Amino acid sequence: MGKNIFLLSVEIWYNFKAFGNAESGLRGAHKRGMETPSDVLKNVFGFDSFKRGQEEIIRHILDGRDVLGIMPTGGGKSLCYQIPALLRDDITVVLSPLISLMKDQVDALRQNGVNAASINSVMSWEEVQDVLRRVRTGSIRILYVSPERLEVDGFKDFLMSIDIGMVVVDEAHCVSQWGHDFRPAYLNIAPAVSKLRNRPIFAAFTATATPEVRDDIIDQLSLRSPFTKTTGFDRENLFFQVEHPIDKMRFLLDYIKKFPDVSGIVYCSTRKSVEVVRENLVSAGIKAVRYHAGLSDEERLKNQEDFIYDRAAVMVATNAFGMGIDKSNVRYVLHNNMPQNIDSYYQEAGRAGRDGLPADCILLFGQGDVSTARFLISKGEDELMKKTGYKKLNKMVDYCNTGGCLRSFILNYFGERDAARTCGACGNCASDSDLSDVTIEAMKILSCVFRMAERTGGKRFGVSMLADVLRGSKAEHVRTFGFDGISTWGIMKEYSTRTIREITNFLVAGNYLKADEGEFPTISFTGRSFPFLKGGEKLLMRRREESAGWKRWIKNRTGEYDNELFEALRALRRQIAAEEGVPPYVIFSDKTIAHMCRSLPSDEAEFINVPGVGETKLRKYGGAFLAALNDWSVKGRKTADS
Ligand code: ADP
Ligand code: MG
Q: I need a surface site. Which of 248, 255, 433, 464 has the fewest CB within 10 A?
């Protein structure tokens, strides 16, 4: 690494010498005249209104003030600096932690007709030369680089020789040791910036809200009395839910199999469980890829790209995956294991629904997750960190067990005290009409567990066998134990295996039954089982699955627009994306496509009114999409006529 950097620096030094002053003085070719921030928002990015916080931040930057923007994932941090960058006539340097992140931003900007570029370690010497030359001539005005690049001598010299008006630090929490992604090179940013010709405006952005991290960002980056804007942390389009399934794999399969082509992430706590989960998904015919620190760089990159380019639907990963993923159409994030704290959980779950459309964040809790998390924390060296670690873990466990609103639990954790007490849109707030009385079913299930143990002299069985017996199966494995002869055999014939599972899960969560840990957990009685069987207690269960966020949305959406059209436009997008070598969501987001399906634009004037369509995209894709929309309405008319 050290050697690489050295070589790189030599190369860049030579580049600097070679191009030296030859092309200076040509910059400013793209300044957007007298446009206002709103004009740029509309003309370049195709949006009509700012998201929360954007306008204020942009105004302060244009006034020459340092800013610190703390906004949730998907909150629209990029435009906060991209719009001012386009309104200035000097160069903006953006420091970003990962190549994939830079690539995504540059792709997205180029799609909108903005000349941006990044320099990274996988580029060839010639490519780097080319970018530096174009920055120098002013044809590139937004340059993305990693903080490590600032340590490369030649690059430092290059920076000192150009007019940098603004330095942006994206994912600024990486500068803080209190954050979850501390990156030492971030500490070099402030010294490097102090050596520039003129001190540029400094803008830092993060989604991490804790006070320690915020103060650290200001100190470590030496921001000068920055305008600090923290927008609300709520992500309204995310549906939060906690499940306590006995058989997590079954839950994952049931959930994912309903919409196998939709993009989603499954987080697991260990590499081994990544492997197991992925194998199971693949065997079930789902296009799933894996990501963890034990894989080669090549495989990780390939799998990540397959996911980003919609070639693989599901990413099964450890927490090594995700930073630097700006994929906007992730419809769900399922946690197969509980993370160690709410900070990580919200960060990971927050990768769902960046496009603002409904998305699900479901955590599958298992008692074993607590011991794993404890173990991982106990391995730490710093006593203070360990103490904080346990404290945070307890909060995480509380989240998994609370009966209250999950969203307000999270928002309270981040210090938003006035957060609504009930959101109406999380697993715990699902409306009361979803409650059903399962007292009788519960009695039948408990009796069956009891009778099965009785028949076999105390043996324990899993929920599959239990369901088979209750449904009156005559399968070999049922008869072997003589279960076809016990009184509870077939007493739930009219129920699906799925429902029996669901109620059994519910009983385990309520401690009416207990499931031991392991790959094939078995079910047994607890202290609450007998008292319940004696009667007198009524059990109401929430049928949660049906109310999960984006699935409910899909149901409600029926009639709002034609699904076939939606899929046709998505296919067109995929085709264009493949031709251009960019991720599909960079062409148009799902939200933009959904809007097209609703508003059915028929000419360019209507097309540019679709949010997410700016001048460049109108020019590039207007024709193809309008043609597809037109084909569809002609076809529709024909069908209606016949
Ligand atoms: P962050 O970096 O805060 O996670 P991004 O900058 O990647 O968020 O933006 C998230 C999504 O929101 C992107 O798809 C972006 O195009 C969209 N977006 C940003 N600003 C607006 C806006 N004013 N109106 C509509 N969509 C927006
Ligand atoms: Mg971002």
A: 433
